[in-house]
User: Which sequence fits this backbone?
């Protein structure tokens, strides 16, 4: 079935002949294996460009910042899936990645779009406060949440945010988007009526957009990072399984609030 | 529902209090972000240990070697999935990872187990030829395929294999498993009756087992690597979509070999 | 980690003691197995109510209408995934389901919301033309696509649409939403400037909303239906594999439009 | 890339021209929608044949028997995934299906193969006791688990098993595989040394193989059934979310058994 106009597949990522695999214009075996780190290769795969030293540093720092945060829901889902289907590691990883959605990790891209919106609105003026007020005001009027601001746990700024911004500065990265992220945090109390601290989902695009990482690929960063974290958890799960223990604990206080047939007694469990 | 004996979830990967996130014994914000590369962090997450310089080099090289190989079936599946469900990047990545199974990428672990079997059988003797003959003979008798040997495309040794082995040697890695992998390749013609070249699925465990990467986590290496490749392809797909073009081409010569109702004419397509 | 306010899990779907499994208030072994069809059970699971005879008929008809449509992209993705990972049928089904997104099958819910919007706007008036004009005009002003209208293949009304509407009428279903769906089709040319035929993604909610199926569960109907279709395809794939043939065909005319290293010749493929 | 010998995709399931969609030789709009139940259509899709009345009854009963069993691990994984990524219902369903693996639901196929092995061994003799002893003895010698026997909860026979067998008998299904399943249960104590009750994963193939459902498609039955159950849960999750509550409860008693940095105090949580 033909859907859409394009019928010939084309791509600028990879080609090969019987002797050589070419990736992004380079000979994989001769010019990439052993010559480039995995982080730099990820940057090259996504952008077609090799990263600057600042980009390498910042991309490593953001991947490290969000790869692991303990037994969060997506890790639990992944470990439960491996417990139930231990032969298919790829299925357990996939189940964990499927939780990298809008609520928990997906805000990196939407926060990046917010930062870009403020940058465009400021139009060359590097005092971002006025532009931030306008854009946040529009979000408020549309009753949209401010992506990348507020956190269920941390009332102080998440320590990963300061660490990321410090790394970016020390690496000589362009600090524009970080300044914008700070400006937004500053105008939020006045416009929204409460403090919403800049969280790691805003810090990641703020740091990455300053080193040339594209907005369209921002959602890929938490996904790649979490894949590393999931593999750590699943390797542990294979040795010391807790998937079923998590599931047991989760429902210990479970309340059934539906109907029961006559004579049914839950106490007979 | 209680399944199994363990009821209290425990893990040695991550804990936190309101100020500090601890991963593998280290303060994430103070000791890891900006201080450790993503590759080294992956090694730390999986093993609990920081890698040696040789381990860093070899792990980077293996991840780079298999992250990308063009529009392979799992990449096609992933790009088609994004075309059909563009709002859920995580779903398209998951669909691509689900193809990292036994046939295409999953052989890394089974090949690693084969190498380990030969090492144990050799029992300290570092001439692996005799042990390889025994083990491969047993595989043949059991009509099992030799995981990590043979390749649909390359009749010569895949150039990635030589590159990986060269990187391991230059980095000063333990070459035991690489010697075993070579020994197996050498005995195959005599026992199996044809050449089966050592492929990248055997080269990866051969290199990684020499730098302390655990067998149980080997399947995670192609999964993490391919996630990076998939994000590259999906970023391109968002800009220059080919998911539906791939699907159209795939069925251009499609043959329906089932029944049809009376009067149905396919030419009326 | 605590996210959100609710901490005690509760559900009205299922409970059990050591002898009895209760689903939606009924004893599974005594009152459901052998007493209720799978389609009626699906309705009961989703709504907590047993379906009327009209609801049974319409739900069966909608599930049958969209379970199967040949080698569409999600079926191709699923068959390629099974080819690459044949041990994990659940992974191949999951890969296929991940393509049930907004573009291809997910429009059932958004189309249902459109129908409901027109119904509410008409406010008891059962001439839906005026309300349809208003709502479609608003969609046009917001440059939103009209979910459930237009089709890449069929310029005539898809024959499944007429079949579904005929079934609903013969079963004595409430025809309100079907009348609304027709009204929308009628006003589209005047407002949008071209014909967009009512497609199966609008016909499904039009039929189902008239028999008490909830809007929030509409997305589940194509997913359940396609799961049946995928299992049909994957059973065939296990016997007569075409996953790799699809992948091969898809890239036969592949164009690489990136850079190549000096001396690389594609003709040496 | 060409993998394998087959290059032209062919299928006997579906074709279409601009007016007609043909599925398994029938006109979808004219002969199937409104004429056939979803369960019968599933049988037709998988086998190419319309089911006998006994097959309809038994297939409905097996699908109803395993669609829902409360907040089992895969349902928890699915509800957590929807909580984290609420826009992608298909992702949450996929995450739930990925738990339909060898341990929890996947035993239907392996149990079916065990039943078939005993039938073939009996070689026309309809006293299956001797053949069952041989085959179970071989499983024991190979230290293989007996798929479909034993249950974490029920020490008595699961009430769903008796219900399924009663339905099959009342429907006039061929009882061969059910007799084999009983024979296996009877010989287990003598050979294995303890009672292992026939569970629902053996009852499903025992019933289905008697009505012509193919062994190769057995794994699809729990997957299709659970998809219906998952959609019930996810519809409830959208209205009364508990995904994060499940995750919170799961780790309330979590024990971190790794190292901590100097000065770190967990009590400061």
Assistant:
């Amino acid at each position: 079935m033909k859907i859409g106009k394009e019928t010939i597949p084309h791509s600028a990522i990879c080609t090969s002949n019987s002797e050589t695999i070419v990736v992004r214009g380079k000979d994989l075996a001769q010019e990439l294996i052993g010559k480039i780190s995995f982080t730099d290769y990820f940057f090259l795969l996504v952008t077609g460009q090799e990263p600057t030293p600042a980009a390498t540093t910042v991309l490593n720092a953001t991947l490290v910042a969000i790869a692991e945060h303990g037994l969060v829901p997506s890790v639990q889902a992944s470990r439960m899936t491996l417990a139930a289907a231990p032969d298919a590691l790829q299925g357990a990883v996939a189940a964990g990645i499927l939780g990298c959605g809008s609520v928990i990790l997906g805000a990196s891209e939407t926060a990046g779009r917010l930062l870009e919106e403020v940058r465009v609105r400021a139009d060359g003026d590097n005092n971002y406060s006025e532009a931030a007020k306008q854009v946040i005001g529009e979000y408020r009027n549309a009753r949209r949440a401010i992506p990348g601001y507020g956190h269920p746990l941390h009332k102080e700024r998440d320590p990963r945010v300061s660490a990321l911004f410090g790394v970016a500065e020390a690496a000589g990265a362009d600090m524009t988007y970080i300044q914008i992220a700070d400006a937004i945090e500053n105008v939020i109390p006045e416009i929204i009526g409460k403090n919403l601290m800049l969280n790691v989902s805003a810090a990641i695009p703020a740091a990455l957009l300053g080193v040339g990482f594209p907005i369209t690929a921002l959602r890929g960063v938490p996904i790649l990072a979490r894949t590393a974290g999931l593999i750590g958890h699943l390797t542990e799960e294979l040795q010391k399984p807790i998937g079923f223990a998590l599931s047991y604990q989760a429902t210990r206080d479970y309340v059934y609030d539906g109907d029961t047939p006559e004579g049914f007694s839950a106490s007979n469990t």
User: Anything to note?
Assistant: The first helix of chain C runs from residue 28 to 32. Chain C touches chain D through 100 residues (CB under 8 Å). The first strand of chain C starts at residue 10 and ends at 11. The mean pLDDT of chain C is 93.
